[in-house]
Amino acid sequence: MSIALDIGKFSIKLVELEKVNESIKVINLKTINIIEDLDTYDLDKLSKSQISASIQDLTNNLNIKIKKVKNLITSLPGSDVDTRQVSILDMPDNELLQALELEAKKHVPLDGTEAIIDYHHIGKDVHELDKINLLLTTTTKNKIKDHADILKNAGFKPGIFDSDPIALCNLLQFSYELPETGANVILDIGHSSTTLVVFGNNITYFSREIEIAGNQISQSLIRNNKITYSEAENKKHEKGIAIFEKANVESEQAISVEQRTVLNDLVDEVRKTLRFYMKNNSQAFFNQFYLSGGCSKMIGLDSFIAEALNVKVDILNPLNKIDYDKTIDNPGEFSVVIGLALRGLF
What we know:
Layout: E1 2-7, E2 11-20, E3 23-33, H1 48-61, E4 72-76, E5 82-89, H2 93-104, E6 115-124, E7 131-140, H3 141-154, E8 160-163, H4 164-175, E9 183-189, E10 194-199, E11 206-210, H5 214-225, H6 229-239, E12 247-250, E13 253-256, H7 262-280, E14 286-292, H8 301-309, E15 313-315, H9 335-343
Parallel strand pairs: 1-4, 4-8, 9-14, 14-15
Antiparallel strand pairs: 1-2, 2-3, 5-7, 6-7, 9-10, 10-11, 12-13
């Protein structure tokens, strides 16, 4: 049995998985908005107490006894964690840890507290025989403390701390057959940011947080249409990218004019990121793009991204190899939390 929480800035997701023989099934799966009245929602004013209260509401709705949960997996958002593949000289573990601490401090913004690191051996570097490849994850003591405080205030004993990008990789590896060559790209479009992950069997891992996601899309709709936050959220999901289409009148005819939108900005950031990746991995190529996250079901978004980047785009189905007897309106929003829960089973 494994229970995971995906603690977002808009909603909290919980999943409980059970492994029976060779199959995995869902016992519980639910999401709850942190703020009920969306017209009062303000991303910058969310408090830890509000988030903890929402976690308690969610577990109460599912009749989960918090004190009895022994195997809880949660994750720090990609914006709070730096995860990257590094190549480093093969050395004893005590020397390796010191070298990695120096490497980690180059990449994570320090906040006055010490850096916290973890790493996973990938294998020998095929280009330099005296080096090994590692997946290095870095955060700070303050980030860990803030996350743990939220869980403790909700009544949980903190368990395994993971990161969103790694959870997405674990999900993809479990749910789909990865080709031996080339890379797959995951775009997890959440509420406050988009997590981009490049991942493959024999390819350099890479991830980046893009500060354009669901909240920025809604804010754009509010500014352009003078509507409320709840109206923007509803229109975003009811009409999809068509909500950005406008017609200008020129002469006597109505001519549809392509408008530059926040979606163009998102695609531009993805394009720049992938160019950077290719510059540093010149032999790499991309097989498949997967969309996940709360905005992944926005009507027309997959086609928009596919056309803009000239790539093949599918929606990542986190239940592709997991048994669940209910229908979910937007499975993609549960990608991170199911990826987290899978870690607790293996």
